[in-house]
Design brief:
7 helices, 5-stranded parallel sheet, single chain, alpha/beta
Length: about 325
Amino acid sequence: MNNIKTNLLILGSGPAGCTAAIYAARADLNPILVHGNQPGGQLTITTDVENYPGFSSPIQGPWLMEQMIEQAKEVGCKVHNEHIINIDFTKRPFKFTSSSDLVFLANSVIISTGASAKWLGLESEKEYTGFGVSACATCDAFFFKNKIVAVVGGGNTAVEEALFLTKFATKVILIHRRNSLRAEKVLQKRLFKNKKIEVLWDSTVTEIIGTKEPKKVSFIKLKNIKDNSFKQIEIDGIFIAIGHKPNTNIFLNKLDLDDEGYIKTKDLIFTSIPGVFAAGDVHDKTYRQAVTAAGYGCMAALEAEKFLTSVEN
């Protein structure tokens, strides 16, 4: 096995990981960034990005992440296209083993492995992701001004997304597989009061139908789970709001995680182990935005520098 030593290892290459890499490299920490399973994170499956500061016109998510990676490299961060499969936090330097048997030994680590939206698992859903299928109303609602959209789900996230979308869409259809919502009562009251929202109970989405040129969603096919009937409704977009799953399986029993699997932090980015920091969607289940993830990455890098200075002296 090859051993690679570093002051600071950064796991994940989304906005949090890239920002951490830029700040750490500029601080002369000689960081190493490991891409992980999805290089660039969730932005790589996003088309138009309009809410990231610094760009007057919409930009492409994959392009933005390419630029972040290149910036990190330019200032001195080394990047490895590896996937970590085993971690040892029992002593410093911390030990990380990749799927290709590379071993990274790091005095400090920033975990920015992100979270993944839960999807319905339809082939048509994959086909139209970024072309009318989304998992983030805050990111994409603006593109559906004066249009008809659907939201799938019945929890707080789904209801919050449906309410948010009414600021833009002419009509929002909430689709839920049960006959009652799991969302908090106060949110349900707001939902049922809103005249722009229609709720379709006991229903599941079986197919998303769209056009190829231009590529966009046009209809969804629904199944009523009580009578097994099918119907097709016309929409311009569909938001999947059945939850997110943090990419933290590898940290189970090695870091303190909450009931949903998110890394527990104190003072924003400190984990239960000194020298181990968390940044972005891997611990933030409230905001889940590229810009907030980048902010956490900055904070984690600054604190990692302080930590490394303290243990060296």
